[in-house]
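Lab channel / #folding
Pinned by the channel admin:
"Please post every new chain as: sequence first, then the structure tokens as a reply. Keep commentary short and put observations after the output so the thread stays searchable."

First post following the new format, from NK:
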Amino acid sequence: LSATTTTTTMAGEITDQPPNEELDQITNELQSILQLTPKQISLISQSSQGCAHEVQDLFTVDDCLHSIHSNQWLLDEGVDEVAREFTSVLNPSQLSKFLLWSDHNADQIEKLDYVNVTAGVGNGPVFEFGVDEGLTDGD
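Reply from TO:
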């Protein structure tokens, strides 16, 4: 087992630092407990080479999520406001039916292009509309 510590510099570069005493102690304990052969140690070392890059990628994603959370302007609060206004005019039965319809047509809703809206219908998604059972002509 290689006893090096991988760190990330301010420029985002990954560097290997000399090990600290605690890491040396843990490495030695593992080697004595597991009784690994030199070949096994080599295989473990080779299999963990990409881990440092994956950890760096996860920290980058974490930093991005923290930035989005701390900068509210990156979130589209207008969507919440419009959704709140829309649902406020529906009674509980209508809201329930709308949510069921949305769930049933989730794949078609995902196909909608909200950014590049065209004037015509074109080859857009086909939505399914159910008919309530048990309703009479007067309902």
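NK: Confidence is low (pLDDT under 50) at residues 7-15.
TO: also worth noting, Helices lie at 21-34, 38-47, 51-70, 77-88, 92-104, 106-111.
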